[in-house]
Amino acid sequence: MKKGYITIFLSLSLTLILSLVFTVIEGARISAIRMKFECATDIGMNSILAEYHRELLEQYDLLFVDTSYGGSIPSIANTEEHLRKYIQENFNSRGKSIFRRTRDFLDMNVESIELTEYSIASDEDGDVLKRQISDYMADYPVGNILARITGNFAQVESSQMETRNVESERESAQSQIDEIDLPLQEMEDGTYEEVPLDNPADAANATRSIGVLNLVVDDIDSISTTKIMQEQYISGRTLMRGSGTCTEAESVSGTSNEILFLAYLFDKCGYYGAEKEDAMLQYQIEYIIAGKDTDWQNLEQIAKRLLKWREAANVLYIMSDGAKVAEAEAMALALTAVMLCPELVEPVKYTILFAWAYVESLQDVKDLFGGGRVPIYKTASDWKTGINSIKNVKGSLKDSEDSGRGLSYKEYLEIMLFLMNSHDKTFRAMDIMEMDIRKTPGNSDFRLDGCFDTYRARLAVTSGFGYSYEMERLYGFY
After folding, report:
1. Hey, how many other C-beta atoms are within 10 angstroms of the C-beta on 407?
2. Are 199 and 345 in contact (CB under 8 A)?
3. Is there a contact between 207 and 395 (Cβ–Cβ < 8 Å)?
């Protein structure tokens, strides 16, 4: 007989050892599942951000993920499916050519993925987009442009360019003339007729209905007439909305941030005389300010506003210039009707002064469109038109000359942008972005309200070995 106590001891020992080994293996499996979940989530969520819109980055230096992925309908469900695919691909085993039937040691599968928060570009009245712009422009010397624009704006306020109603003042002077009965003269047939006033200001005022661009642009055919359908762009349609900012971020309101946004717009957008190549609208800054659906209308609106501003400033100056007031009075006194009716002197004089300021203002707009500069406050040396110009307005306007003093066309546009409310300025700027991106291949239906830059995901995974885990992570361009 053989004694068997060693075999029994080994059997008992192996039971304990194998229990320990299997416990360690199972613990390793649990740890590996957790670690792989973490790693796959990190890879997957970063892969989503790696799908940023290339054209938006190329043209506007903005990092956003387009949830339509080149399609026509943006949806956050598309992103959830992309994230599911990336994570599941990292769960699947690879390289099992020898043991094809061997079960995956972790056997993990994605159970659910939900994007619970995401910051759409147009959220919070466009502040999500503007935060990226503020980050991009962080190194811009904002102090210099802030001092210049606020200084120019102060001059605009003090000169009453934005608030003074010159048209009402001019009409008031004209109404005084209309209320005075003109003197009568006897005709050869014995009848009496009113002596014609022949006010030279009437010739100037008659040109007001022609349109400013027709008066100040020599080659009118060179003006772009591109037309858009505004309802197709972000400012004119119902928007897809996200959850707003997913992180605690600094506010983008305030003068400094608005100045940064203004500088960004001039860096990325074109305007008359500095058009952007291959842009949908040629006068993009003008569109942001005026908001009309054609290039022509936008430029016309800017020209009208410049004319209004310059008229207010020029009336303020001409009324204080004794020599010019004396010229206007002398012209008024030379009229036959005025000689016979002295009470017409003052109102006719003022209509002549208003007409003269109007012609000077047209010359100012022509100079600005031609690349010249026009000061807000003029002196006698800055004045370019003579009193007789009111008799032949278009023929008296000269080619633009840069006096080297005053503000350029761009600087007048800066003031207009600075005066705008933030909402209109931001959403019209996003219109411009959509227009230009849609011109590129594969982006005909691009929508900024379908793009996000930050998102929070809640994920759940299961293992074939009976384990399940959940995780929530926040990723984004911040």
Report:
1. 19
2. no
3. no
8 A C-beta contact, residue 256 and residue 142: yes
Q: Which residues contact 313 (CB under 8 A, 6 or more apart)?
A: 159, 161, 376, 377, 378
Pull the structure tokens for residue 277.
């190549």
Farthest CA pair distance, the chain: 167
What tokens does 355 get?
Answer: 């007409």
Measured distance CA(314)–CA(374) in Å, rounded: 11
Non-local CB neighbours of 218 within 8 Å, separated by 6+ positions: 399
Q: DSSP labels for 308-357?
A: HHHHHHHHHHHTT-HHHHHHHHHHHHTSHHHHH-GGGHHHHHHHHHHHHH
176: nearest Cα among 344, 342, 357: 344
DSSP state of 424: H
Which residues of the chain carry a pLDDT beneath 50? Answer: 96-97
Structure confidence by residue, pLDDT tens digits, 17-57: 888 887 888 788 788 888 988 999 999 999 999 999 999 99
Residue 464, classed as helix, strand or coil, is coil
Q: Can you say whether residue 177 is alpha, beta or left, with left for phi > 0 and alpha for psi between -120 and 50 degrees?
A: alpha
Among 463, 462, 460, 415, smallest CA distance to 471 is for 460
User: What 3-state DSSP class applies to 115?
Assistant: strand
Q: Which residues lie closer than 8 Å to 404 by C-beta, 6 or more apart?
A: 373
CA distance 69 to 443: 9
CA–CA dist 89, 110 (Å, integer): 10
pTM for the full predicted model: 0.88
Q: Could you tell me whether strands 108-120 and 468-476 are parallel, antiparallel, or unpaired per DSSP bridges?
A: unpaired
The size of the chain, in residues, is 478
Q: Are residues 353 and 383 in contact, defined by beta-carbon separation less than 8 angstroms?
A: no
Q: What are phi and psi of 101, to 5 degrees?
A: -95, 0
The whole-angstrom distance between residue 442's C-alpha and the CA centroid of its chain comes to 23
- d(C-alpha 33, C-alpha 122), whole Å: 39
pLDDT in tens, 245-302: 777 666 677 788 888 999 999 999 999 999 999 899 999 999 999 999 999 999 999 9
Whether 328 and 387 have beta carbons less than 8 Å apart is answered as: yes
Residue with tokens 């661009």: 213
Residue whose C-alpha is closest to residue 400's, from 351, 439, 365: 365
65: enclosing H helix or E strand: strand 65-66
Contact 22, 452 (CB under 8 A): no
Q: How far is Cα 171 from Cα 25, in angstroms, rounded to an integer?
A: 95
3-class DSSP state of 383: coil
Q: Which of 408, 295, 394, 149 is nearest to 284 (CA)?
A: 295
